[in-house]
Structure formats: C-alpha cells, structure tokens
Amino acid sequence: MVLKPVGYEDGLTGVFAALADPTRRAILTRLKGGDATVAELAAPFSMSQPAVSKHLKVLEQAGLISRSQRATARLSHLEAEPLRAAVGWLMDYRGYWTESFDRLDDLLDDLQGES
Amino acid sequence: MKIVVEPGVPQVVVVREFRAPRDLLFRAYTEPDLVKRWLGPAGLELVVNQLDPRHGGRWRWTHYDSDGKGYAFHGLYHGSPTPERIVQTYEFDQAPGTVYLNLITFDEADGVTTLTQNTVFFAVEDRDLYVDGGMERGLRASMRNLDALVTELAEEAHS
Fold first, then answer.
1. Model's pTM, two decimal places?
2. How many domains does chain A have?
C-alpha cells in the first residue's frame, strides 16, 4: 500500500470537514472491516448509491479513502495517515482536560508553596 | 473530573475541583508563563503566542509534538476576564470557521475552587469531533478502534 502524503495545512481542514458528517464516519467505520463497493456501503443506509458516491467523493478528496476498479465494481479503501493526524489529536477531549488539570493541580501546589 | 455530554445538545460541561483559591486559578489561566506549565496533553510542549486577557483581547497558543509539528488554537476574550469567569471563543487553525464558545467559572468555598467549563458548539456533530461521543453512540470507541487500525495499517505500509 502506498500512503498518499497529505499537505498538513490544507489536509487536516479537509479531514475535519469530511469527518463532521455522521454518514461519512459510518462509512469509514465500515471500511476498517475491509474494502467495499458502493453497493455494499449503501446497504446499511436508507440512501441511494449516488448519494453514497457523493460522500465517497468527499472522503476521497480529504485523502481518507482511495478507490480502485475491480472488474465492474469500484472499491473503496481506507487510508491511514490523515486519520492518524486527526483522530490522534482531536478525539481525546477527556484525556486532554484530565492531563491538563492534573498538571494544573501541581502548578497550584507550587504557587501556594511560594506564597 | 466530571464530564457531562448529553445526547442531542451541542454542549459539553466539565467540572473539576482544585484545592486552591480562585485567584491562583485565574493567574494560571491568564499568565502565559503559567499557562504553558499546565495546559495541554502530557508530552506536548505549549507555546503561548499571544494572551491579552481583556474584553476583545486575542489569545493564541500552539501545542508542539515531539516531531515539532504545531497545533495552533486562537480566539478572543469576550467581557473582561475575572477570577469569577472567563468567556472566550476557540478556533483550531486547521478547522477555520468551526468556532466554539467557552464559559469558565471559578467558585470558591472553604479553600476549594470548583471550576466549571461550559463549551458550546454550532452542532452536535462539531461537538462529537472534539468530545467523547461514546456516551451517545460509541463514536469514540469506534474512532479509537479506527485509530488502532490505521496505526497498524501505517506500520504495515512502512515495513
């Protein structure tokens, strides 16, 4: 597999826009189970294949999936790098504040020790 | 620490108690040298680029990872920040236009300060990008799985 380099500045913006939609997140979750055709991806949703194709286009432009042709079907494939950048950073709100506030405790102890 | 994430409401409330007077918490929030000592995940270095705690004043800070990659956030203070409350907008540099609003209050009683951080987003979907959506629909768990998977995939690709 070849990873597509993603421009950091523009790349993440597109990734966040793509991830903001619940249907697209569901499609990505489905793709972690393996490559899939448009018909396979449309099956769990009450959505037409053209509507799903529209979502796939957004995901592809964000670099989150790549698509290849197999016989008559077009396969979608999950791409790793952009998700690592986005998921690793923003998904852990609880961790961010837990760690920050633990450090704030230490800082406040230091400040009170000084006074 | 308590996090309240309700389904269908684009809001998160975090409540945390500190054994310190609120004046000190206010300093920790508004003095750049102090902010950099606590804010952000462990392992990331914080650089406070700008911090002007007055009505309409700007703030901007950048978290740097071990590879030197920076993640910058910025926004404005609304109303004069006081040891009672701070109101500020937030925007992640990589997601311009997706703004959220923070109301932070400090309530002191018997030497304990209760910090309440109330964050409001445009839409539930925006909130779920930032927050533990696990309580609502398992998003976080699935994203974590996704993260584990893509890490594996990336490792495979490099080997």
1. 0.64
2. 1
